[in-house]
Amino acid sequence: MRRRRRELAEGQRFRKLGAGTGVWEVIGLRKDEGGALHVRLRRVDDPKTLKTLAAAVLDDPRQFVAVDEGG
Q1: How far apart are CA 67 and CA 21, in angstroms?
Q2: pLDDT category, 47, cuts 50, 70, 90?
Q3: What is the CATH number of the domain that holds 19?
Q4: Residue 7 falls inside a structural domain
């Protein structure tokens, strides 16, 4: 069964589950040559720490959960 992809936008925040926990903010979106969507993230508590992930990774509830604006 395929999960429904959530809409992604700059400013959204996600909490990493498991090893390497932390809150990450979306700072950019782009598609590669094959059409796959990638997300550029910045760690909220260390803005110099950046990473780029396939959008599908953010859709995996075993890896990331969305953080509400309230916390």
Answers
A1: 13
A2: very high
A3: 2.30.30
A4: no
